[in-house]
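1st attempt posting a full record on here, be nice pls
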Amino acid sequence: MIKDLKQVLTLFCLLSLLQGLRAQQLDHSWENLVLKSTDNWYATEEALVVANNVLLYQNENGGWPKNKQIHQPLSPKEIAQLKKDKTKKTGTTIDNGATFLEMTFLAKIYQQQRFPVHKDAFLNGLQYLLNAQYDNGGWPQFYPLREGYYSHITYNDDAMGNVLQLLYDIMQDKAPFSSLMLAPITRGKVALAFQKGVNCILKTQVKQKGMLTGWCAQHDVATLQPAKARAYELPSLSGKESAPIALLLMQLENPSPQVVKAIEGVVAWFRQSQLNGVEIKRIYGENGKVIEKQVLTSPNAKPLWGRFMDLEDNTPFFCDRDGIKKASLKEIGKERQNGYRWYTDQPQAVLDLYPKWREKLLDKRQDPTADLYNMVVAQDGMGHFSSIQEAVNSAKAFPYQRVFIHIKKGIYPEKVTVNEWNPKISFLGDGVDQTIISYDDHFSKVNTGRNSTFKTPSLLVEGDGFIAKNLTVENTAGPVGQAIALSVNADQVVLHNCNFKGNQDTVYTTGTNHKVYFNNCYIEGTTDFIFGSATVWFQDCTLHSKSDSYITAASTQEGIPFGFVFKSCKLTAAEGVQNVFLGRPWRSHAKTVFIDCNMEGHISPLGWDNWSNKAAEKTTFYGEYNSSGAGAHLTNRVAWSHQLSAKEALDYTKEVVLGGTETNAKNKWYELD
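the predicted structure (as C-alpha cells):
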C-alpha cells in the first residue's frame, strides 16, 4: 500500500513516462489532488512541499500556465527555469483549470496552516483574474492576450465558469475562502467582477427566432456572437458548455428577472435539443485506448446532447481538422473521432435540478411584479445583483411606482449613475457604516479638460424623486483637487441619514429649479465641499471641515429666491483647523443662510469671503440667524452679510424653501418614505 506522498508522486512520474506522448490535458491527477484531498492532508508537511511548487509556477502577473502537473517533484534545473519564467509576459491562462486550481489549492492550505505567503499568492492570483476581465464582463482564455481565438470570451472547458464559481464562493464567504478574511474593498471588487461576468453571460446567450437558447464555447469579444476556435470548433450551440453556465446561474439566491429568463430559456432549449434513443459505444484496443466510437440506436438510452449544434436548428455536427462540417461522427477521421468528446449528458443535471429551483423561486415570488420594484444588491451573492449599477440598469424606465433597491452591507467600489429615465428610485442601505459606495476619480485622473470635475462623482443622480437612506457615499481620491462624492442634477431628491465623505467638492447639487433635501446627514471636505446652483435644505446635518478653507460655494441663479439653507446643523472641524469660511460665491447671485446652527471655533470671525469679486458683495445673499457656539462671531461678520431678524427668519421654513407654491399640499415629496 502507498502510504506517503513521495511514493504517490514517484508513481505519478513513472506513469507519465509510460504514457509517452499522451496529451497532458487528459491527465487529471493535479486536479484530483486539489479538489479531492482532505483537510487533514492539507495540514501536512507533504502539502507544504506541493505548495512550494504552486508558488514556483506562479507568474509575476499572478497567473499560472496550463497543463502542468504541479504536484510532481521538481529538479534543480526545473526550479531554476521556473524562476526564470516568472517574468514571461505570455502563457498564463484560465484554460484547463489553470489558475482556478492553484488558487483553490492556496486557499485550502491557508485554511489549515495560515502561512501569509500562501494568502499573498492567492491575492496576487485574484488580482490577475480581475485584471484579465474584459470591460464587457468576459474573460479571455489567455491573459496577457494572445492573438487568435485565445482572446475570445471563453466558456470552453468551463474556463470562465471556473472563474465565476471561484468569485461566487468568495462572495459567499464559503470555505476555504472564508479563512482568507478578505478586506471589504476586495470583496466589493470581487462582487462587481462576478456581476459583470453574469451580465456577459446574459448578453451572450444565443437566440433562435427570438427565443433564448444556450451558449457557444467561445464568443467574439467585440460582437459577443458565437466565434470559431480551433479548426474543428466552429461557431455553434454547445450542450457541454451551456450546462455549467446554467448551473451557475441557478445558484443565485435571488436571481434577477433577466437571470430567470436566461434559465427558463436554456432549460426549454435543452428539452428541445436533446437526443433520445442514442448510445455511444467505445471500442478499446489492447493498450486500453479508445480506437473507435460507434453511435448506436438504443431505446433505453439516457438523453444526450451534441457538443456542437447548428445555430439555426440545433442539429449536432462534427468536424475534422479541415474545418468542414459533417453530419455524422463516422465521417471524420479516427484521430478527432476518438480524441474529442462529441456528445455530453451534462444538461441532464440542469433538467434534474430545474423543478426544485422553480419551486424555490415561486415560493419567493408570490407577487410577479415584486422584483421589478423591490431589488436586493448583496456582495455575498444572496441578492438579485452584486452591483448597484446593474440593479439601476435593470429598473423600469419611468416607472409608475417607486423602485426600492436594498443595498446590503459592504463596500461597493463603483461609479453609480441614476439616469434621468430612472426616477422614483430609493437606495436603502444597512447603515452608514455598513453600506458604502466608494470610488476615487478626481480631476487629474479623469483629465478630459476644464470640466473634468463634473465627471468625478462616485454617485451621480439625474433621476427625479431619488431617495437615499442609511448609507455612505465617498470619494477616496484624497486631497488631490476636485473629486465629487455625490452629484445631484435632479429635482425632489431626499438624502436621509447618509454620510458624504471626500475632500474638495464633496457634494454638488445643481439645476436652476431643482430642490434637494438633506436630513440628518454628515458631510465632510476641505474646499467648497458643498457647491452648486440647486435650492437645498439641510436639516440637522453635520458639516465637518478637514482644512482651513470654505464650506460652501453656491452658484444660485439670478431670480431664484433660495440657495443653500442650513437649519439646526453642527459645524465641526478636524484637529488643527482654525480658519474656515462659511462660504464664497461661485457665481455672483449666490445665496446661503445658516439658521439655528452651532459653530465650533474654527469658523472665521469674518464668516464669508467674496472670492476676489468685490461686485459680488452687492448681488449675493449670505445670512445667519441665531448662530451659536465659539464660531458665532456675529458682530465681526463682513458688513455685506446679513444677520436676520426673527421676522425675516420666518421666511426660511422647509415648507417655503422646498414646497414653493404647494405649501398646503398633503404628502409633500420630502416627507415620502
